[in-house]
Amino acid sequence: QVPLVESGGGLVQAGDSLRLSCAASGRTFGTYHMGWFRQAPGKEREFVAAITRNGFSTDYADSVKGRFTISRNNAKSTTYLQMNSLKPEDTAVYYCAASGRYPNRGTGDYAYWGQGTQVTVSS
Predict the structure, then answer these.
(1) Distance between CA atoms of residues 1 and 98, nearest Å
(2) How far is CA 65 from the centre of its chain?
(3) What's the number of CA atoms in the CB half-sphere (13 Å) around residue 11?
(4) Which of 10, 27, 79, 106 could form a disulfide with 72 if both were Cys (CB 3.0 to 4.6 A apart)?
């Protein structure tokens, strides 16, 4: 398994920025594609962003494109989600996930999940 731990969430105001981190244990982080998902109360977990194992390719949901940036540092076994120009509709629990194969946008493509970190954006 690949244990994942998210951090960096918090309460911010609309227009602010946050950087989420997802730290992985083990020595195989660089073999996994990484993704970020979010889930608001009463809503389905939705795709936010993904990055390939070497960081060469990224993918973003239309709702965050141009505002969020996914990145990774394989030497630190950590992936990041830089969130700029936050909106109240970004409020959700954010989860990082790992996939052993090239991922699509569905949750079923990811084998490992973190516990989530709360992001709340006030207006």
Answers:
(1) 10
(2) 13
(3) 2
(4) 79
